[in-house]
Amino acid sequence: MVRERVTEIEIDRSLEKIEQILQGAMHEFLLHGYAGTSMDRVATCAGVSKATVYSHFQDKQGLFKALVEKLAQKRFHSIFGTEHLEGDPKIVLRRLITKALNQMLKDEEFRAFKRVLIGESGRFPELAQFCILCLIKPTIKTLSHYLASHPELKIPDPEATARILIGSLVHFMMTQEMMYGKDIIPMESDRLIDALIHLILKSSEY
User: What share of the chain is helix, strand, coil (3-state, %, to 5)?
Assistant: First the structure.
């Protein structure tokens, strides 16, 4: 019993260390980019030893991928939750699109991380591909499955439709916030949401 308690404490401390390291890594990657970040800098920023960083993460690429996985899981679950996606498309799609777009527009840290990822993708394409694998692919799969499960929507290609939805949201976020275009081509987010819902539902009985 005592040993089990000790093990639980050790696990808690290990998880705390991992979180410290990931927070330090995020700070350094945003400040210096992927190429300019070293494990030494991450260790210093996280307030742990370099050996501690390496005890949890094999190398910088492994650390970066762990950070991508954490961000992807957090964003996916905050939008889709843990339950099976079901319900009236008029309600469900509006909820999903609104939640996803609001997150994109309000999460400055994630947008900054996207800038780093896009900027480094030319030199480190495998990192960009990992982000697609962790974040974009599960989103497309989940949304495609939901659209396909509602034949009354009369959508001939659920996957392509899911990609159009996601692409529209990403484009809006990039042009309005990441590229500072909201004063040049302003648009209220509600207009985009209403238009997307209309495009999906117009051929159905809704």
Answer: 75, 0, 25
**pLDDT attached to residue 202:** 81
State pTM to two decimals: 0.85
Cα–Cα distance measured from residue 36 to residue 28, given in angstroms and rounded to the nearest whole number = 8
Per-residue CA distances from 70 to 14, 26, 38, 66, 136 (Å)? 16, 11, 20, 6, 14
Considering the chain, tell me which residue range(s) the CATH 1.10.10.60 domain(s) occupy.
1-57
Please say if the pLDDT value at position 75 is more than 80.
yes
Say if residue 60's pLDDT is above 80.
Answer: yes
Could you count the other beta carbons within 10 Å of the beta carbon of residue 169? Answer: 20
CATH of domain 1-57: 1.10.10.60
Q: Max CA-CA distance within the chain?
A: 65
Residue of 47, 30, 186 lying closest to 111 (CA atoms): 30
Q: Residue 15: is it exposed, middle or buried by C-beta count within 10 angstroms (0-12/13-18/19+)?
A: exposed
